[in-house]
Structures are given as C-alpha cells and as structure tokens.
Amino acid sequence: MLRIALMTLALGAAGALAVPGVLAQLPDPQSSGQAPLDDGGAGDAAAALEPDLTALRYYIEIGDWSRVEAELRRLREEYPTWSPPPDLLGGEAAPQVNVQEVWDLFGAGDYAGARARLAEIEEANPGFSPPEDLLRELNLAESRQRLVNASDLEQWQRVLDIATETPGLLTCARVDNVWRTADAYAELGQIDSAFMLWRTVVETCTNIEERIATLQKANAYVDVEQLDTLISLALTRSPGAEDRILQVRDDLLAGRGLEAEPVDMAEVQGESGDASAVTLPPPRPITQPASAGGGGGAPAAPAGPSMAERAAQAQARADYGECLQITQSAQEPGARLVRAWCLFELDRPTEANLLFQQVIAATSDPGIRETAQFGEVLSLLRSNRLSEAGVVMRGVSLTPTQQRDIDAEILAQRATSAYAGGDFRETIRLVQARRELGVPDRRDLNIIMAWSLYETNQLAEAEELFRQLDQVFSTAESREGINVVRNARRAPF
Amino acid sequence: MMRLLARTRRALLLALLTLGLAACIGSEPQAPQLYTAVQGWRPISENETWLLLEPSSEAAVIARLAKQEGPRLHQRLVLANDTALSGENYFEVMLSGDPGDSTERYTDTNFLSTVADALPGGTVVNGQSNNRYGTIIYAIAEGLGDARCIYAIQRLVETQALQLPSGVTFGTIEHRFCGIGESREQLVARIERINFNPLLTIVSGGSFSPAF
User: Fold this and answer.
1) Would you call A387 and B25 a contact, using CB atoms and an 8 Å cutoff?
2) Dihedral of CA B150/B155/B161/B163: which sign?
3) Is 0.80 topped by the overall pTM?
4) Which residues from B are below 8 Å from A348, CB to CB?
C-alpha cells in the first residue's frame, strides 16, 4: 500500500488534468477525469541518467514523509521518465488501513465527517493513501452538494463553474446534476447551451422517466421548434414508449395554447432506433380553452380576441395570474368561467367555487352550465367540503373523464386524510387506487406514499420512491427522505 | 436525530395538508365506495364563528367553515383575495382538547419552513407583534408587484389575559393574507384586532359542547 502511495505521489506531480467540456463529460462518466498523462516533452538524455536515491531512501528510513514527497517531486522534475523502483521500500509490507468507517459516513451523506475521519486515518498512518474510488466518490458527492446548493440559491454562474470543474458530475447516472446545469444555462440566457444538455440527455440516457422529465423541464425554456426536436429524438430513442411521449407532447403544447396534429404512429415506429429523428407535424392553435383537472372544458370563445379567448390563452400557458388580470372586470359567463378555472389552478378553490355558482346562475348556455357544474364539484372537493360536493353531484351529469377526475380528487383527499390520521396502510391503498384511475401522479401524494411505506417498514420501496422523486426534482424533502430511509435500512433493528 | 427532524417536518407537512381538510359526508351519490369515512369541512353560520374581525375584514369573508379532527376543532374563515397570486386568504382557529397534544409548537426553523409554503414568494421579512391574546409571529412577503402578503401565527395558551374554553388545552390562530397596496402595518393590524370568543366547553371524553 505504501509503495502504491509513493507511485501515486510521484505520478500525481505531473500536473493538473485538462478539464473536459461540460458536454463531453456526459456520456462516459467513468473515463472522465482520467486524461492520459503527458511526459512533458522530457529529453532522452535526462532519461538515460540514473538519479541518486540516497536522500530519498534516507527520508523513507526515518519516516520523514514531507521530505519524501519533496524529494520525489525534485527527482520527477529532474528525471521526467523516472519511476520509483519497486525495492525502494525494501519489500516492506504496507500497513493495512480499514476505511469502511469513511465509506459508512459517506453513505450516510456526512461528507464533512468522512473527510475528517479520512484526515485522522492519514495522520495516524503515515504514507497511507486513500483509495482512489473513495476519493473520487467523495469529490463527486461534495461537488454535487455544492452544485445543488448553488442551484437552490439560484447562483447560476456558480453552478456552471462547479459543473465545468468537476469531471464526472454530469452523467446519466446523475441526471439531476445535468438538469440543474441546464437550468443554470437557461437562467443565464444561454438557451442554446441548455438545449444541448437536454438534447444530450434525451439522446444518451436510457431511462424513459428521465427522458420524459427532461422534455418537461426543457419545455419551460425552449421554443416549439426546439421542443419538437427533443420530442422527435425521444420518439426515435424510446421504442415502445411512443404513446407516452406523444401524450407528453400533447400536454406541453396544450400548455402553450397549441394543439398537436395527429402523428403517424406507423412512421414513428418505423423510425424507432434509427438515428434520424421523426418529423412531427406542426401544432396549431387550440380552439377550445383547456380545462382544469383535465376533464371539462370552457366553452368555445367567440371569434376575435375576446376577453374569454385572451384569458383562455393565458390559462393554456399556465399563466393564471395574467388570466385573473384579464378577467378582472369580466361579466360575460364565458370569461367568468375561465376566471373560475384560473382561480382553481391558483389554489383558490373557495373563490373559484363562488364564481362557478355565479356562472351557473347567470348562463342559459348548457355547455357553460355543465362545465361550471363540474367546476363547482371539483372546487368543493379541492376545499375538502365533501358533503356539499356530494349534494351538488346529485344534480350534475358528468362525462366519464370528469367522473374520473372527481374520483381521483376524492381519493387524494382521503389519502391525505388517512395520512393525517396516521393510517399509513390506508394511505398506500388510496394512493395506489388513485394511480389505477390513470390520472397524472401528484408529487405531494407520492411524498406521503413514500413516508407511509417507510412507516409500514417497506423500506426498499420507500427508498425507491424517494429516489424517483429526487431524480425528477431534487428537494430538501426528497433528499431527507432518502437519508432517513437509508439510515433505517442500515439500523440493526 | 434525523428521524426526529423527519417527524417534525412531517408534522408540518400534515398541518399543511390538512389545512383544508374537513367534516363528514352525509350522502353517497355517484361513487359511494369513495366517500366512506371521509372527514371534511362544513359550512357554519356567522353566529357559530369564534373570531370576530374588523368590519372591513368581516365584509371580505366569503366562506365560514368548520371541522373536527379527533380532539381538535377547526374553524376557517376564507377571505376574498384581490391579487393575482396563488393561495387563499384566511383565518384559521384550531382548539385542542387533548392534554397530550403538543404538536405544531413553532420554532424559528419550522416557522420559516411553514412560511415558505404559505407565502407565494418574494422577499420575506419576519416580525413579531402582540394583541390581547398574546404574541403574534409573522412573516411578510414583498416584491410581488404591487401586492404584499402576510403569514402569521398565534399560539393560544391560557394566561392571565386569556381564558381558554373549559377543557381546551391549547389552540392556534393562523392567518394568511395577500392584498394590493397594503402596508406592513395594515397587514399586521388584521390579526392584531381580532376578537376571539369560542362559545364551547369540553363536556367529557374530549367531545365538545355545543357540538358542531
């Protein structure tokens, strides 16, 4: 071990490694950071000479390791091709050092503790060199921590600096780092660089959930053309998941007030796996305002830029604040209906409910009335005014989709209620029942699901769910969940 | 320690999740299997309300709701919101009849965590004030265009100045409000000037009288 340490010490003096470009790091995390060493153009004459190792041997003999290091550096500079001979230590066995404790601290996320313990071990074992894999993982983890902190604090340039100076940080295995780095580029207005990162993830990383999450994250910054470039790449790289990706495209375009033209699935499937991307038909503007909850729909707006139409466009862009400003003085039921949905989306269900009721009272249009009734039920449910919702539902005719959305809302309320009451098995059952309805997942429900799995001692499942949540969007909550569950899994009882 | 922190956080999560949860379902219309044993809010009359607000605030009340969760009674007054920001304006009172109920004891850390969830962003300024019922801690969010928001919490414990209803061990008043053109003082005044008058006692076994 000591011999290896000396070799490492000598070789390490060769100089800093070239920092690869951010993009070049992504596909192959293992190779990054291991650039070939250059001999610095040393002359043959110098290589032919044998250095005098007397001083070096003496320093080793007396255990003066700082002088050993200095002498090695001097020799290396003077004789660039020289390597320490194997018998330098006289065959002495290297001391055995157990670093498991450091790994344990590392595994618990206590990187500072791991560093401190490592320093103690090094001090107690002169000549000991920490395992390269431990140092590499520790460096990566610390860098990731710094990157996450900088990202959380919106210190975008700092995020880019950390990502650039740390080889191995941006990989498919650590895709959250890539997303944060892309966000930093985007927030700094460098959309093209951000786009290249998202594109590289979609092209390179094979996890379908991460690929879809990348599309959703990129959607906040890219234009429609760039979005379709990413989606077409995702389609060609995700055989068997074309329907899901096209559904994501539909949702993202709807959020921009656009409607996707039908895509020829045979063409898509025919091109899957091919390097070329699928050509997607350009989207067209939506003619029906999107609805909250995905089930109902506001009525078609009259021709021209009416208040309802402008509000519906803001709603479709998920700009609910603007939607409220547009409809501040709305009197016409259509515009008020859109306003009610925007209130609902802004987590103001009580106001939304009142407005839905007013629209129902004011309109003679059956389409508007039915949509408003659906909104009335949904907003009561969102407010947990369940008995009132039950009464209103008796007189309402709901489409199957609306009924599904309402069922999903009820199950969500029941799950949170069960969790609040400490009934964790029931929480799990209800969240699973909601999933079976085929409605989109909700992060808040997944969080209580993960804690319920933890509470019912389903630790592996809990850790997996927290990990999935953390990969999609890493927050203090998801990271804490991972740490708590991991600690519990390591606990002896 | 980490588990303790996690439990504290989850207690806060619960508090947030249950802010809108409520009373019993009386009917089972179209999907009865979904409606069983669900608690939820139910509307109450003005006469049943424990909090009396200043006239201008009373005029802004758009819903009066109540629910019971085990030994805890909640009342919630939802107020109109003239901003375009997310989240409802409300006062919420919680009274507990459980002597062992000690959750939601606010500290600097978990108050800030709650604030982060309750306010819609902006620059947050913390403060402290008083009314006749004791100390109010609050946070005000600014830099939200022409809007400004407050999130305030007051813990109700029996003191010389405050006599809680018989059997009530502790309570909280929580207030969240976003308004346009309101000064910090105006925002704080809304909770400073409340009148708290819960007409109930705990008769036995944690049940409240008059019942909801």
Assistant:
1) yes
2) positive
3) no
4) 81, 86-88
